Amino acid sequence: MKLLIAIVQDEDAGELMQELTKIKFQFTKLATTGGFLRAGNTTLIMGLEDERLKECLDCIENICKSRKQLITPPIMGGAGEVYLSYPMEVTIGGATVFVLDMEQLIKI
Ligand code: 2BA
């Protein structure tokens, strides 16, 4: 079995969860925050059979889109934060997916 931890953008999370439910995957949704942008994103924890891994990844790939975002990165100054006056473009990937081998899934 596999344990998937999929970090997706909030904008894609609703459609992704709808589709995953339709094709009978189970998941837990966590409201998370990206360490770099300090903006909300969505993390789905999923336990699934090895043979359904590709189906699950295909579903995520079909729905989750990469997007560009303009940010103003902070520079840490001695007396506190100082902000650059010009923005920088960051590409946020469609999804970041960790795939782990799972020994057991126990439901009590
Ligand atoms: P954030 O940490 O908010 O990062 C958002 C986007 O900012 C990243 O998109 C990347 O394009 C850029 N970025 C991140 N750190 C950067 C840095 N030090 N310098 C310049 N640009 C940087 P993604 O790579 O697609 O990541 C989207 C979200 O997935 C991340 O949000 C984070 O929540 C998660 N993530 C990505 N890689 C991860 C990892 N190795 N471990 C844990 N979480 C990860």
Count every beta strand, where a strand is a DSSP E run of 2 or more residues: 8
Specify Rg, calculated over alpha carbons: 17 Å
Order of helices and strands: EHEEHEEEEE
* Beta-strand proportion: 35-45%
Average of the residue pLDDT scores: 92
User: What distance lies between the first and last C-alpha atoms, to the nearest angstrom?
Assistant: 18 Å
Which oligomerization state do the chains in this entry correspond to? Answer: single chain
- Overall geometry comes to elongated
Strands of the biggest beta sheet: in what spatial order? 2-3-1-8
Bound molecules: ligand 2BA
Contiguous helical run count: 2
- Helix proportion: 10-25%
The helix-and-strand class reads alpha+beta
Give a quick precis of the structure.
The protein is an alpha+beta fold and 108 residues long.
Describe it for me?
α1 (10-22) packs across α2. The longest helix is centred in the N-terminal third of the chain and has 13 residues, at 10-22. By secondary structure, this protein is α+β, with helices and mostly antiparallel strands. Helix content is 22%, strand content 44%. It has helices at 10-22, 53-63; strands at residues 2-8, 28-33, 40-48, 67-71, 74-77, 80-83, 88-92, 95-101. The strands form 3 sheets. It has a 4-stranded antiparallel β-sheet. The chain has a two-stranded antiparallel ribbon with strand order 4-7. It binds ligand 2BA. Ligand 2BA is lined by residues 7, 34-37, 39, 41, 90-93, 96.
